[in-house]
Amino acid sequence: MPNTPNTLHTARLKNNCPICFATDGLEVIFTQEETETAFFKKPAKKMEEKMYCHTCQNAIYPVNWTEDIERVFDYNKKIAETNKAYLKVKPLFYISVVMAIVLVAAVVYILIPT
Q: Nearest CA to 22 among 31, 13, 10?
């Protein structure tokens, strides 16, 4: 079951980086994992966030965030809408269901004497 990350929202922030104090390098990325099998495709319920500074090339962890960064992060998190929990079935699922119904019908037809 391969999991593929889907980028929900990417935002460049104008806040100061807590490490290098640059004002133009912060970027926050919101992603969501999606599980895909031969029968269905389903997104995960939780969303992952990552903040990165392109100027100093470091990941910025929540321990280092200022109140301004938290406020902008919360705003962008509201914008990043997660994919709702759905189950998208593939054609192979429908084929296997039809084959199972045909098999059960054949067994019933053979076992019931006329």
A: 13
